[in-house]
Specification:
Distance between the termini: 45 Å
Order of helices and strands: HHHHHHHHHHHHH
Number of helices: 13
Number of strands: 0
Length: 252
């Protein structure tokens, strides 16, 4: 390990340090993580859920906590954040430069690995991660009505948190790929109700869901409504950009 410590002393950039540590981890058996000196050197860099080190820590966290005496809360938070990032990279809807949702890619192998770690780790937000994966699997299977029913259940128990960003992305994905207009109608009705409540708020930069309402109306053939909401969305985005520009000027 001395050679790697010397290399660290010559590293100035964070990425350089991380690469040196990750390179070192590849040279040692995972059981070495039970040694305090090794853990103190590499523990903070175990953030890749697909790595053998991450797997070892998840499955042996009790033993490691007793031997190494690390801050268990901090380590579990580190593992939880890493898992959430990995899940989001697989399941979240991505958009092209024009804002059109891209088709989800089947990553069954990665999902199996992530679910195995989530089930074993019993970390905070585990239910949120399972919920996101479940909706993703239903989207891949094109079980459109089940997606809606499942999402409503998760909203009821707050399994997806308090933000409706995930709901919006799901609705936009279905507007692009779901042929069942009855399901689109359900999402439209729901988002119209949420938008109406938001309009009663006081924040200048609150979301009105206009962009999502526009694509849902377009899917249902309501061209006039789609155009109306698109204009309203563009106006809100311009106001937000102006507010942000003003904030930057005041900060300088």
């Amino acid at each position: 390990m001395k050679d790697y410590v010397v290399a660290l002393q010559g590293a100035f950039l964070k990425d350089d340090i991380e690469n040196i540590v990750l390179d070192y981890m590849k040279t040692i058996p995972v059981e070495k993580l039970q040694e305090k000196e090794i853990w103190d050197f590499v523990g903070a860099y175990i953030k890749d859920p697909y790595s053998p080190q991450f797997d070892y820590v998840i499955f042996n966290i009790d033993r490691l906590a007793n031997k190494v005496k690390f801050d268990r809360y901090s380590v579990e938070r580190q593992l939880g954040w890493a898992l959430e990032r990995a899940v989001d990279q697989v399941v979240e809807v991505k958009f092209d430069k024009d804002g059109v949702p891209l088709r989800l890619v089947d990553a069954a192998g990665k999902v199996d690995t992530l679910l195995r770690l989530i089930d074993r780790g019993n970390l905070k937000r585990a239910e949120t991660l399972r919920a996101k994966i479940r909706i993703y699997e239903l989207e891949l299977a094109q079980k459109w009505n089940e997606i809606y029913e499942c999402q409503m259940m998760y909203r009821g128990i707050k399994a997806l948190g308090f933000s409706d960003r995930y709901l919006e992305e799901t609705a936009q994905y279905l507007a692009a790929y779901c042929p069942d207009k009855a399901v689109i109608e359900k999402y439209l009705t729901l988002i119209e109700k949420i938008a109406a409540r938001r309009r009663q708020g006081s924040s200048k930069l609150r979301s009105y869901y206009y962009g999502t309402l526009s694509v849902l109306h377009a899917k249902l053939g309501n061209a006039a409504k789609a155009k109306e909401f698109k204009k309203m969305d563009e106006k809100i985005k311009a106001e937000k950009a102006k507010e942000f520009e003003s904030f930057l000027k005041k900060s300088n």
